[in-house]
Amino acid sequence: MRIMIQGITGKTARLHAGLMAAYGAANAGQVVCGVTPFRGGQDVDGVPVYDSVRQALAEHEVDISVVFVPAAHAPDAIREAAWAGTPRVVCVTEGIPQLAMLETLAAPGLGNTLLIGPNTPGIIVPGRFKAGIMPVDPFTPGPVAIFSRSGTLTYEAAARLSAAGIGQAVAVGMGGDPFTGLGFVELAEAVRDDPAVRAVLILGEIGGDAEERLAEHVLASAYPKPVAAYVAGVSAPPGRRLGHAGAILENASGAAEKFASLRRAGITVCADLADVAPAVAGFLDGSHI
């Protein structure tokens, strides 16, 4: 996986570019270039820097770009990457105004680019590469796909699975903002026919309808893989934001309705994080399908 870093000359981007490069160097990923306007011709720890994405792509093959650009300019960075033909974009940036993100998602020409985020920890394929800010220690290679609205929950769930001897095929943080790129439905479809993925774990939050839309899709499409779900924040009072901008319980019955829709679709609902590993183990050994 060939990675480009937008905003690579910033302190945080430089740190994580090094971590991505170190993990990928031992596996199957490499940071090939970076972009920061007016810094073209420089390099960051040996990675060449260009003034624009188009210039970078003229010199390098890129599979995914990771955006470490301040919130005021991140929507432009996403559009620049998409319009230049970058196939995948991970936007780590948080605090992007909702209207700006809505305009970005509706921008012409964005449809050919797969967007993860914003406000995402990124993606990791354990034992191969990572693109974003996920720590690598909780993850081990295996057959479970984790799709999550929370970075911290992703790491905790992966650590519990790994401790139980259950590895992960991929983990993706879809982002905690109200308006993001790929959602649970698109991510689940991405692994639908992947023989390396034998089970899917969804880590949701109160607020929004991402979990309900996934439940509808699983039911309507006869989704072939077993799915477990854990939803955080169900004890939060209505109207209270929990961590992410998208995690707001609109009404007292919202959590119950969310759980009901998941169960109707045949998705195993875990009441506690401690239930995640046993539920997934049941999928894999055939005792809980």
**CATH level-four homologous superfamily name of the largest domain:** Succinyl-CoA synthetase domains
- The count of domains is 2
Structural class: alpha/beta
Helix content: 25-40%
Overall body shape: globular
CATH topology of the largest domain: Rossmann fold
Strand order of the largest sheet: 3-4-2-1-5-6-7
| Number of H- or I-type helical stretches | 9
CATH class label of the largest domain: Alpha Beta
For the record, the CATH architecture of the largest domain stands as 3-Layer(aba) Sandwich
Query: Quick one: how many beta strands?
Result: 14
* Distance between the ends: 34 Å
Largest beta-sheet characterization:
7 strands, mixed
Q: Averaged pLDDT, please?
A: 92
Q: List unreliable stretches of 5+ residues.
A: none
Q: What does it look like?
A:
The chain is of the alpha/beta class. Helices cover 32% and strands 23% of the residues. It folds into two domains: 2-116, NAD(P)-binding Rossmann-like Domain (Rossmann fold, 3-Layer(aba) Sandwich); 137-285, Succinyl-CoA synthetase domains (Rossmann fold), CATH 3.40.50.261. The protein has nine helices and 14 strands. Strand 13, helix 8 and strand 14 (268-270) form a beta-alpha-beta unit. The mean pLDDT is 92. Keywords: Ligase, Nucleotide-binding, Tricarboxylic acid cycle. Residues 1-96 form the CoA-binding domain.
